[in-house]
Amino acid sequence: MTGENPEGTVLVVVDLQNDFCTGATAMARYGRDPAALDKAVAGCVRAVARARELGVEVVFVRFVGDPEHQGAGWRLRDRTLGKRPKCLEGSWGAGFHAVTPAPDERAFTKRACFDAFLAEGFEGHLAARGVRHLALAGLYADVCVDSTARTAFQKGFHVTLLTDCTTSLHLPYDDVQRFMRTVYGARTTTTDDPRAWTTPMSPTEEEPCARPPR
């Protein structure tokens, strides 16, 4: 897909992969009601379908966790906590779950890192497309989605979290949403309100810059 994005928005689907969504590896890590995970996956499927229908660009981000990509800190953490690598390149676990990129949609790979901006080509693609607003879906809200939202905010993007398209792994989900609203100025909405998540924030939604005292 080439050329500028006239609306300045992309839907970013983060780590919707088998090892995070289904099967023994996902269930061993998630440790909560599987229905919440299934709901997030179903929300992502709806959001992708709606974005395609409305002509909003969809970008997929995938994780691979092969040991050769891991830094020393990552390997130490895994040894200390007994974590096994997930989403090994070429494995079933690394495959997309429930929805896959269309032929004209881009997919970017994170190699043992959380933040989509660390995936080769991701930030350059946004710049080339004139993107200024990321609508975020996928897994998990308090890990890779949050890491991406944090960098996006610091780089000047507007951020929207699709709350029916993700869930949290470690922290209470309501707290994660509140944190994103407070720290990143994120909009939180659902797939059912496409007018809210398919466009950047309007000027009336933005806080005016503080003026220095006279």
Looking at this protein, list some descriptive labels.
single chain; 214 residues; alpha/beta; Rossmann fold; 6-stranded parallel sheet; 8 helices
Descriptive report:
This protein is of the alpha/beta class and 214 residues long. The protein has a single domain (9-199), classed as Rossmann fold, CATH 3.40.50.850. It has helices at 18-21, 23-30, 34-54, 72-81, 122-128, 144-154, 173-184, 194-197, and strands spanning 9-14, 57-64, 106-111, 133-138, 158-162, 187-189. Strands 3-2-1-4-5-6 form a 6-stranded parallel beta sheet, sandwiched between helices. The chain starts with 8 loop residues before the first strand and ends in a 17-residue tail after the last helix. The model is unreliable at 207-214 (pLDDT under 50).
Structure at a glance:
With about 210 residues, the chain is of the alpha/beta class.
Give the arrangement of secondary structure elements.
Elements: E1 9-14, H1 18-21, H2 23-30, H3 34-54, E2 57-64, H4 72-81, E3 106-111, H5 122-128, E4 133-138, H6 144-154, E5 158-162, H7 173-184, E6 187-189, H8 194-197
Parallel strand pairs: 1-2, 1-4, 2-3, 4-5, 5-6
Instruction: Please give the radius of gyration in angstroms.
Output: 17 Å
Output the CATH class name: Alpha Beta
- The name CATH uses for the topology is Rossmann fold
Anisotropy-based shape: globular
> Which CATH-level-2 architecture?
3-Layer(aba) Sandwich
Number of separate strands: 6
C-alpha termini separation: 49 Å
Residue stretches low in confidence (pLDDT < 50, at least 5 long) are 207-214
User: Helix/strand-derived class?
Assistant: alpha/beta
Q: How many domains, in number, for the residues?
A: 1
- Helical content stands at 25-40%
